[in-house]
Amino acid sequence: MSVFRKITAQDEFTGWHMIGVMFLFFGTIISVNMTLAYFAASSWTGLVVKNSYVESQRFNEVTAERQRSVELGWKSKLDYNDGVLSLSLLKADGTPADASGISAMIGRPAFARDDRKVEFEAAGAGVYKARTQLNAGVWQVELAAIAGDRTAFQHKMRFTVAE
Description:
The protein is of the alpha+beta class. The chain contains three helices and eight strands; from the N terminus they run H-H-H-E-E-E-E-E-E-E-E. The strands form two sheets. Strands 1-2-6-5 form a four-stranded antiparallel beta sheet, with no helix packed on it. The longest helix is centred in the first third of the chain and has 28 residues, at about 15-40.
């Protein structure tokens, strides 16, 4: 008994078989590329500023503002419960900070579609509150406020909203 069997006409690899193999091969590559292109075009662009040249001209000014903000020594803490974002601002000595014009850009770290600006209102003793609805997940906040001596306070932080 032989291990090999005789190849018949119905077992032959024809041109139609080759067309099927080529269609499956290139179809798989094209469909994967189209899927990746869709996700690349529909997700975060990676842009932090609209015009990097214009922003580069402001580098020294922005760096000096951030340095003055750091010199204030303020500490900030965020809490989120039931549609209310609470911000606590404390001076370096632990006393409540007196700030005005507190606003924040809030959004997801990697997607721009949830970005929004919120305005905080004073709730007393260095606590400020803003109403906004946040879904579960990681959020990024860029705070901006004016200290009593007209120094701009800026702070970026991330926090997680539990399900």
